[in-house]
Amino acid sequence: MGRILDLFLSVFVIITTLFFLLRILPGDPSLFILGEHADTKARIAFLHQHGLDAPSGKAYLGFLSKLAQGDLGNSYRTSTPVTYLLSQHAPMTVGLACLSVFFSWTFALMAMCVVAVPWLRNMSSIQHLLLLFPSLSTALPMVVSGPLLIWGLSYSVSLFPLPRIHQVHPIAASVLPALSLSIPLSGILFRQAMASMLAFEKTPVFMQNIAKGHSTWHVHLTHGFRQRVRVLLSLSLLQWGALLAGTAVTERIFGLEGMGHLMIGAVLSRDFPVLLGCALWATLLWSLVQGMGHFFLQRLEGQP
Amino acid sequence: MRRLIAFTLFVGFLWLMPLNTLLQQDLYHAYAAPSFSPGNFHPLGTMENGFDLLVLLMMSLRYGLGMALLASLFTLPLSLAFAYAMKWKTIHIFTHAFLALPGLLWSACIVAAIGQSGPGGLMFALVIPGSLFFAKLLWDIQIPLRHKTFFYSAITLGQTDWNLFSKHLLPNLKMPMMVQGTQWIAQALLFETTLSYLGIGSQMSFGRLLKEASGIWMIRSTPLIFVATVLMATTYFLFDLANRIQKTDIQPRNNLT
């Protein structure tokens, strides 16, 4: 119940703040939609048509009453209902984020496997690689790593198709973007998974089981796995916001028609209803994922 | 030894400084003999308008770094003010609620509201989400301090809220703030690059250059990608190193080898 209240509060605060910010601050959408040289009459008509000339309080109440009915208004640019635009663009972003979480978890599990197998862990080249990857992944923003991946895996080797150039299935087209999006999260999960595994090896539980004659791999799998999953899940939850923001960048780099692309387009053209809709969607998704994650964490910890 | 290395790296970073004169000389040569492909004089080649790509990359990185430093200077005092204001329940709840929207999306919304995407808008976009995040961080750090004996003693002596904050909490928050501030400079640089790439930032930024150059990369496959990667990673690692040194100074037991 508390979480649902938190969700409503977050949505209310963000929507209210954004609504008044967009109305009070001097960014005039008519200048961007109609152009700087537009006729004054046309601009006045535009402002009147979209209710931008109404007092802020009245407009806010109108917006809230429409929102309660599930109506987010129409786009200034295309006059398309915002809810329709969201329904068209959201699946791509959600799919991209889920695929990148999948890749990140795969990388983290690979790191855990390397740590659990002694002969693999003792190879110095593997050690250096393992230490370098997390640092490099946090040091490179997606605007650098994205084009680097395009150049390396798509342009030079032709391993992955590019959505802008090749006509491919959306899932196939989103593999490389998801890989690019997963790099920062992978680095964090990778580092934590390794650190957590190594810390587990110093615990009495681990030592007792090794003394009983069990293999390192077996002890990690039977006694340490649940704790590792909990750590990875907590970190994935903490990074969900960054992942969501990262989709905006990735979609822009790879030319995917997702929520991030829609939102940045709305920012550049001052399409306020679309911008508010995207912010509302992002907040709802963030809160939903946090709620689901906490539920699973409680289940993992054995709490009711 | 580690300090010496860090200092050398920081001094080495000054190679970015005399670029204005380099750019002028380069422009002269570039317009005298414009070339699009890499050569002896232009290791990465030139843009279509004759600008040397390597010099442009370095210039734009320096610009981004300047913006990040300036943003950090504004962010720290503002976050302190937010952290102090978080003692009021409403502001506390509001700050938590704000964090439900990712920082990058907040920045995008702020730029849209301001109506300009130049350096001024970019500064707002960096400072406001950063301050909110820092305020939350500072608030979390100061909670255990409020349960220490010295704090209870100060309350018993009847000190005002402001005195408690400025004389007892602030000195203890100084070092964590410095550590996080150093980290924030590196983060702000990445943030600024990303915003500029999306078209929200300044024309001179590293991100905008990457955006413009990305088409050229695909055609020429020059070492430009690798140079950009190395430049960005080096800059980040410099601040990361400074951050680690500060952490070691605070907690010598966390000495990182």
Describe the structure.
- The complex is a heterodimer of chains A (304) and B (257).
- Chain A is mostly helical.
- Chain A is 79% helix and 0% strand.
- In chain A, helix 1 runs antiparallel to helix 15 (272-301), helix 5 packs antiparallel against helix 12 (216-238) and helix 8 (142-156) crosses helix 10 (175-200).
- Chain B has helices spanning 2-12, 19-32, 53-85, 89-98, 103-114, 119-145, 149-156, 161-197, 206-220, 224-250.
- The longest helix of chain B has 37 residues, at 161-197.
- At the A-B interface, helix 1, helix 7, helix 8, helix 13 and helix 14 of A face helix 4, helix 5, helix 8, helix 9 and helix 10 of B.
What's the gyration radius of chain A in Å? 24 Å
Strand elements of chain A, count: 0
Order of helices and strands of chain A: HHHHHHHHHHHHHHH
Topology, number of strands of chain B: 0
Shape of chain A: elongated
Span between N and C termini of chain B? 12 Å
C-alpha Rg of chain B, in Å? 22 Å
| Uncertain stretches of 5 or more adjacent residues of chain B | 30-34
- Average of pLDDT of chain A: 80
Characterize the biggest β-sheet of chain A. none
Order of secondary-structure elements of chain B: HHHHHHHHHH
* Average of the residue pLDDT scores of chain B: 74
Classify the helix fraction of chain A into a percent range: over 70%
